[in-house]
Amino acid sequence: MEEKKEKKWEILKSEYVLNSPYYKVKKEEVLLPDGSIIKDYFMRERKGWVLVYCLTKEGKVILNRQYKHGAQEVVMELPGGMVEESESPEEGAKRELEEETGYVMEHVEYMGEFVTDPSNDRGKAWLCVGTGGKKIKEPKDDPTEPIEIELVSPEEALRRAAEGEIKTLPHVAAIWMGCKKLGLI
């Protein structure tokens, strides 16, 4: 069987139509491999972000419940957030976990880099798995992110993901990957 070669699109023009510190949108004119041109292909650009699947010393998964304005509802998710340019994904995972939950990890392992919307988003997402989580302080007080922390068994986290109680898809995948990495499934 003949192997197909990857055919990339060529960017002919590119301009920002929204350019804020946290979120950017570009309008691009692109040339397709067949010679046709799309004049208004829109791409999102944002900082990379990390998700943290962390087990406490007692073997519980740390989850956050918080309002997300994009979904316009309260959702259950793993801790996580934007990674600063000066940080590695592991450093960002440690910082985000501590800020959002007040927990620190004894051990953190980088699981990889992922894309969440390869058609329209150039942002990167990373997953880190942590163990030995221990609460050392109260979470950072942020009025834009009021967070309720919940500790559940890995089986309960998987059940919630499978039954749609945890409905943010990257978080569903990260829960499964975290359980798999730690030999829990």
Short description:
The protein has 185 residues and is an alpha+beta fold. The chain is built from three helices and eleven strands, in the order E-E-E-E-E-E-E-H-E-E-E-E-H-H.
List keywords for this structure.
43% strand, globular, 3-stranded antiparallel beta sheet, 2 domains, Nucleoside Triphosphate Pyrophosphohydrolase, 5-stranded mixed beta sheet
Question: What features would you describe in this structure?
Answer:
With 185 residues, the chain is α+β, with helices and mostly antiparallel strands. The protein is built from three helices and eleven strands. The strands form three sheets. Strands 4, 7, 8, 9 and 10 form a five-stranded mixed sheet that branches. The chain has a three-stranded antiparallel sheet with strand order 1-2-3, with no helix packed on it. Strands 6-5-11 form a three-stranded antiparallel sheet. It is globular and about 60 Å long. Its cofactor is Mg(2+). Belongs to the Nudix hydrolase family. Keywords: Hydrolase. One of its GO terms (molecular function) is pyrophosphatase activity.
